[in-house]
Amino acid sequence: MSKRINGTLSSRRSFSGGVVAAALLAVVVSAAMTGCKAQPADLNEPSKMVFPGRGADAKAFGYTRDGNWAMSQGRFVDALEAYTLALSYQPEDADAHYGAGQCLLALGNPADAVMHLRIAYDEAWARRTESFDKAGYLAEALQRAGRCEEAVIFLEQRAMAGGSMPEYLRWAEYAAKCNDPDMAERVYLMAIRLDDGDLAEAYYRFGLFYEQVGNIDGAMKRWRQAYGLDPNDPAILDGLSRYVQVVGPTLKLPPDRPGSDM
Fold it and tell me: Does residue 116 belong to any structural domain of this protein?
């Protein structure tokens, strides 16, 4: 696990607009030919807006808005085509890369999605803007592309760099997805020690993990603790109901004590 994900943007910016556009156009054509049929284009609808600036930047902005419009309607081939056009004018447009990566994931091409989502994530990280969702898409693309180790290391780095409970929960989830249940269990234990989020949700998801690996006693313990924290949550009640006939106050357990061996 010595590999690390490069967080710099410099190597990404070596791509010319023509190379990015040509590569993406090939994906658009391939998706259309394999059954991802584009619907009649109404991409001009958002383009009626007045775009800021002039020239390439304005055109890229317009095509990115077209792509966002199409993607919001579930027309991923149309959206990908619009993002491709945006990148032909502005190869470093992080919003267009982000949209293209999401479309490629939706169209079943995670390997190509990785490059675009990494560019979008790196830009957000460099600017210290919100990157939680972008990190999630990048981790999903890596995992689906068969690069599980990179996905887990990437999420570990985010969590260890001062991440919150949701960061640890996602790291644990991907450790489990990538067939490392021992790591997943350790990270879930770290997550429930962090009292900076929805603690009932953390215990519930910990229980789901135990259920998935066949540890029903562990699952019930964590769900009973979740139930003690939030006795009205439908998901928690559903988990308990799978193994007991009557869910009531006697099932409640307190959260783990700080410093306990869990």
Answer: yes
List phi, psi (to 5°) of 148: -60, -45
Cβ atoms 235, 243 nearer than 8 A: no
In a domain, 62, yes or no: yes
Q: At residue 170, does pLDDT exceed 70? A: yes
The whole-model pTM stands at 0.77
Residue 125 falls within a domain, yes or no?
yes
Binned at pLDDT 50, 70 and 90, residue 176 comes out as very high
- pLDDT of residue 109 exceeding 70: yes
Residue 167 C-beta-side C-alpha neighbours within 13 Å:
20
Question: In the structure encoding, which two tokens stand for residue 85, read together?
Answer: 């056009």
- The residue among 26, 34, 13, 124 whose CA lies nearest residue 84 is 26
Query: DSSP assignment of 22-76, as one string?
Result: HHHHHHHHHHHHTT-PPPPP-TTTGGGSPPSSSHHHHHHHHHHHHHHHHHHTT-H
Domain total in the chain: 1
CATH number at residue 52: 1.25.40.10
In which residue are the tokens 């869990």 written?
A: 262
- Give the residue numbers spanning the domain of 107: 1-129
Look at residue 112 and tell me if it is in a domain. Answer: yes
User: Is the CB of residue 86 less than 8 Å from the CB of residue 120?
Assistant: no
Q: Give CA–CA dist 121/133, Å, rounded.
A: 9
Tokens of 103: 């479309």
Cα–Cα–Cα angle for 115, 101, 18, rounded to 5 degrees: 65
Mean pLDDT of the chain: 84
Cα maximum dimension of the chain: 68
